[in-house]
Amino acid sequence: MVVASKERIRDTRPVNPRVKSFKDTFRRLKKNKSALVGFYVLAFFFVVSIFGAIDANYGLTGISSNATNLTAKLESPSAAHWFGTDHLGRDIFIRILHGMYITLGVGFAATFLAGLVGVPLGILAGYYGGWFDTIVMRLMDVLLAFPGILLALAIVSVLGGSTINVTIAIAIGAIPQFARIVRGSTLTTKKLEYVDAIRALGARDVKIIFQHILPNIMSPIIVNTTLFIATAILTAAGLSFLGLGVQPPTPEWGAMLNDGRNYMYQAGHITLFPGMMIVIVVLAFNLFGDGLRDALDPKMRK
């Protein structure tokens, strides 16, 4: 009898609404086949990038991404070199493997930095309004007046080409995107009745912002983060292709495209495989981001 009563009590406990919302979102996401494809592709690339990072630093395969062999230069894909070799005889498969964590790392790091600055600016501007909102939004408008790639080019030209500088340049260009999205969501959320009730109970602004408003505007932040990672990867690859991003001999995919552009007709595989990796990763992020947006959209819950 005691056991039965305990089971009844456990079964009648209220479900945490956030846990229920997460389960509902995950269930809707599983129904989106394209989103699942994107998720599985990204999961595969993440696992491979971890192995590539370990191999690049500890030499598990015993092959360096910068090891040259001029007697085997411009070789087509074969059993010895799965993706062929470049103009210096370097194994393209190993270079793609070792460069995977660099390319993904730049995308994630730039997005993280942009969110770290843009989200607080947006939520504070939306919550307090007034002169602070005006100043922040005008600064964001100035940054938005420049196309992202041109702004990144200008910043990298000043700072110099390196992995860190490319990450900073891309992050600065993305701050307005995060700030405007968060500001709009904050303006809508702060007018809801539960926020007025919490404020009437004497809650401080810091508690209202970070415990009650921020958790309720995470959906657009998560979706924008997922989609922008793809944009960051493309921008980083574009800068490296132009020679202003990650510098050789670092095996970043955009830099590998730059290395092979003079051999496109003679040895097209040099640019084919790095370009194909960029397309696959960006497409996977877009598919997963679109599916995540649909799963988090209240209008799609029916």
TrEMBL record:
The keyword Transferase does not apply. InterPro entries: BP-dependent_transpt_permease, MetI-like, MetI-like_sf, OppC_N. It is found in: Cell membrane. Keywords: Cell membrane, Ion transport, Membrane, Nickel, Nickel transport, Transmembrane, Transmembrane helix, Transport. Coiled coil: none annotated. The keyword DNA repair does not apply. CDD domains: TM_PBP2 (cd06261). Pfam families: BPD_transp_1, OppC_N. Residues 100-289 form the ABC transmembrane type-1 domain. It is a multi-pass membrane protein. One of its GO terms (biological process) is transmembrane transport. One of its GO terms (cellular component) is plasma membrane. The chain crosses the membrane at residues 35-54, 100-127, 139-158, 164-182, 221-243, 263-289. Belongs to the binding-protein-dependent transport system permease family. This is ABC transporter permease subunit. It comes from Salinicoccus hispanicus.
